[in-house]
Amino acid sequence: MALLKFKRRDAPGSTPANENVEAFLQGYSIEVMPRTAEKVEDFRALLPEGTRVYIAHIEGTPIEDMVATARRLARDGYPVMPHFPARIIKDKATLADWIARYQGEAGVDQALLLAGGVAQPMGDFDSSMQLMETGLFDKAGFKRLHVAGHPEGNRDIDPDGSMKNVLEALRWKQEFSNRTDAEMALATQFAFDAKPIIAWADSLREAGICLPIHIGIAGPAKLQTLIKFAIACGVGPSLKVLQKRAMDVSKLLLPYEPNDVITELAAHKAANPDFNITKVHFFPLGGIKSNATWAINHGGASGRPANAS
């Protein structure tokens, strides 16, 4: 049976695709969870070939479900990057087991290492740095390790609202990248305002942190949904973008789309090719299909999913 041919088109009410946005979206990644992935009949109808797919590991998700999701995505031809949240990993033996499962069943050779969203460690690990120090990822031949970035700070790490501890951790990770063969990048929390994102990225470079930044962007979603997630995830000053929108009755019932933040970041990247934000990472808070459709309509991978012919 012939496959449908997809063409990029501008969604009603969206900002038309332009060259800057199309270039900025090349190589974008997207995040799923096992329970959200189950709702997708065919990822190849939604995502361009070669799209990196992160698999979020939420506390309580069995490792078997994580590995099964990784296996399915890998089988469909997508590079898979599972989360390794330090604070829910019991010990070094458990970490080694997870790595072996991902490799043996899904051929995984890349990971996002992060502390995780639980307040108290459930085992021996408290931070992504401790996971890296085990040497297990290097021993297993992982080619790429991503770590978390926080454009608006992280109150869990810096309760006083500064960037002091976050910056110290990033310097450690930069030094780790310098002395290892792993390709590293910062995959960030989502934010809604381009100006503080740009200022943060520039400040990292000034501090000697040169890791490429894969900027987190919230995909299209209901405004109420985004505000809920933003508050839960500790999004900072850029939350005001959503709050201002919520005060506009004409926009209150319309779904949010990341047109403004993407367009501004894309223009800055076009004007400053050495800008250290190199990729976009989508959080599909309103659903994978709606996020993937938005990316297609705005030129991601030239607007073609993997099964387009």
Summed up, the helix count is 13
Poorly predicted runs = 1-16
Order of helices and strands: HEHEHEHEHHEHEHEHHHHEH
Mean pLDDT reading? 87
Number of domains: 1
Which radius of gyration do the C-alpha atoms yield?
Answer: 19 Å
Beta strand %: 5-15%
Q: State the strand order across the main sheet.
A: 1-2-3-4-5-6-7-8
What is the CATH-assigned architecture?
Answer: Alpha-Beta Barrel
Gist of the model:
Helix content is 40%, strand content 15%.
Report what the structure shows.
Keywords: Oxidoreductase. InterPro entries: FAD-linked_oxidoreductase-like. The structure is a single chain. The chain is α/β, with parallel strands linked by helices and 309 residues long. It has a single domain (19-300), classed as Alpha-Beta Barrel (TIM Barrel), CATH 3.20.20. The protein is 40% helix and 15% strand. The chain has helices at residues 19-25, 34-37, 63-75, 92-106, 128-133, 136-139, 164-179, 194-206, 223-232, 239-246, 249-252, 259-271, 288-297, and strands spanning 29-32, 52-55, 80-85, 110-114, 144-149, 183-190, 213-218, 277-283. The longest helix has 16 residues, at 164-179. The model is unreliable at 1-16 (pLDDT under 50).
What topology does this entry show?
Layout: H1 19-25, E1 29-32, H2 34-37, E2 52-55, H3 63-75, E3 80-85, H4 92-106, E4 110-114, H5 128-133, H6 136-139, E5 144-149, H7 164-179, E6 183-190, H8 194-206, E7 213-218, H9 223-232, H10 239-246, H11 249-252, H12 259-271, E8 277-283, H13 288-297
Parallel strand pairs: 1-2, 1-8, 2-3, 3-4, 4-5, 5-6, 6-7, 7-8
